[in-house]
Structure formats: C-alpha cells, structure tokens
Amino acid sequence: xxxxxxxxxxxxxxxxxxxxxxxxxxxxxxxxxxxxxxxxxxxxxxxxxxxxxxxxxxxxxxxxxxxxxxxxxxxxxxxxxxxxxxxxxxxxxxxxxxxxxxxxxxxxxxxxxxxxxxxxxxxxxxxxxxxxxxxxxxxxxxxxxxxxxxxxxxxxxxxxxxxxxxxxxxxxxxxxxxxxxxxxxxxxxxxxxxxxxxxxxxxxxxxxxxxxxxxxxxxxxxxxxxxxxxxxxxxxxxxxxxxxxxxxxxxxxxxxxxxxxxxxxxxxxxxxxxxxxxxxxxxxxxxxxxxxxxxxxxxxxxxxxxxxxxxxxxxxxxxxxxxxxxxxxxxxxxxxxxxxxxxxxxxxxxxxxxxxxxxxxxxxxxxxxxxxxxxxxxxxxxxxxxxxxxxxxxxx
Length: 396
Fold this sequence. Notes:
Strand order of the largest sheet: 5-4-3-2-1-6-8-7
Number of strands: 14
Strand content: 15-25%
Number of domains: 2
Helix content: 25-40%
CATH superfamily of the largest domain: ATPase, nucleotide binding domain
CATH class of the largest domain: Alpha Beta
CATH architecture of the largest domain: 2-Layer Sandwich
Shape: globular
CATH topology of the largest domain: Nucleotidyltransferase, domain 5
Largest sheet: 8 strands, mixed
C-alpha cells in the first residue's frame, strides 16, 4: 500500500508518501508560506532528489494540489497516478476525551474535531483545513484522523484531573490531555518488541524543541508531562514548562499585559531561549556556547536536564519502579551530553550508562552498562509510520 501522511499547520503542510508495512518513504516534503506566496520543498530519499518550487498557495487546497502534482511529476515524482495512493492519514492535534483511538473521517468525526477547537485553538483549525483540502481534491480516497492526544486517554483520573472546581472539568473539559502521543505510542510498542515483552515499566523522554515525558506501564500511558496544552512540563526551546501561575498574574498586573500576551511570552519567548539570554533555542548552539564558557548557556542546559531528571524520578515512583528508560526525538536521539547529564545521579533507580555506547551515533541502540538494572535505549521515533499503519488498517 501507499499511504499519504499529512500534517497541516496554519501556514504549512508536511507530507510523506510511505509504505505502512516496510516503513519505506517514497517521497516527503513541506509546503510553507501558505496564504502568503507559497513554497514547496520536495524530496525523494531513494534518488537523493531535492526540488524547491515557488508556487502560489492562497489556501491549503492549492498546497495539496501542488503536492499531488509533484508526486506524479514525470521527473521528480514517485507514482504515475494519484490512483496509486490508497489512503490519506492526517495528524490531528487534539481529540479531547472523545477519541481514544484513530478513526475514519466522516462528517461526525470532523464535527468532533471542530468541537475540540477551544482545546486546540491553533492546531485543530489547521488540521481541519488539511482534511477538507484532501477531501476536495481526493474525494474517493479513505481519510483517517490520528490524534496526538489519543494515547494518553488511558491515564487514570488521579493523573489527568486538575485540583480545580468540578464545574471547569464537567462543563469545559479542563484536564490533562498530553501531546506527542503518537511518538510515545510508537516507542511503547517498539520497546515491547525489542524487549520481547509487554509487562514493562517504561519512561519515554521525547526531547526536542518541544519536549514531553511519558510514564508507560504494560504499553499504556499512566501519566505525561504536558497538560491541557503543550506548555506544561519541562522547559523547552521557547516554552517555559511548569511555572507557578502567580508568575503570570504578577507579569500581567505589573506590565499591564493580557493573559494572551503573557502566554505568548511563556510559549514563544521563554524556555532555554530565555535562560540563554536570548542566544538560541537550539540545543546545539547552547552546547557550543557552554563549551566557550557562556554561563547562561550552561544554566539553560543544566535547568533542562534537571527538570527532565525530576520527572523521571517522579514517574519511577508513580510506576512503582522502572525497567526501561528511552530517549527519543531530536535532542533525545542526538544529544549524548544531555543524556549523560540526565542520567547522572539516577544510579539509585538502577540507571547506569555506558559512556562509550552513549557517545556513539546510530539508530536503535542500548546505551546502558551491562550491569545496569534499568535498560536505557536510544530509539528514533517515527510518528508518520504510526499514522500510516493506522490509516492502512482503518482503510481496509
């Protein structure tokens, strides 16, 4: 089968055409600046092809047309006809508590996604635009929604409820939802296969410009660090992570800012970017700065690793022990220094890294020492494969 995976943002559209059985990626790319002037970047990994085209994209419909045109292009395409595409899978950020699994898209599904817009005001409208653009251009193809929040719907109430008056939960559905769910789900399933068992207590560290941790037991989410929105948890590239709510009140009152303005600060001007004195939100830049003696870069890295370590300790307690610790996503997969700093001091949990294995680069690998009681893995995540597999299954 050939599944087209779509991740639509407000002014962008990422795509991959892939085989859900083998994981092979036939082509992938990005439409950006939708609604402005439009640019398509298209890659064919097997042929080492990269094509960049400036194409007018007033809406997501024009972006989808551009994607399909390049996929069937005689020189740079990978299929002879759109008919070769069997189905389309869409990443949808927020499914609320209604969606515990992926679903075939119909009018009822779209209406439910629309009802979740208050919970995901930036992403859900864009996800809907991507869905409707595909339906317009490919009306006969099965369309499937894969929700970023679905994996976390197995959390017990003690993990997802906030200690606020019932009315806000009952009337407004305010609770912990969590994100990066497709990534955490991929890792949970992959660990079970690699370890040959499902009865495992796992903490997955999805660390990147956006970061979240997930406590997993028997392949099911028990708790996760992000909350109602993706701001909560550890500090990230530009997100503050967990902050005392009175900090928001103080800033709003003293500097005459609205709550939306304060949240913009917390979401886009905080995190390691702020701690580094505005130098960068890129961890590679921070490591370079720290190596040159920049104390603010050192603090940014130390704060990040400290908070990740705290969550690991908390989740090990919540799980009643720990069998497997996983690092994934951009920083988790590539940041040897970050992994070492996070694991330092976790010997009491049974975590012991092998420095040589940790320093190596590669794909899936164990980086813990032979006598470590906890198996520590680096596993590259593959959210697109999960989306493609769910789409294939639901399109039968």
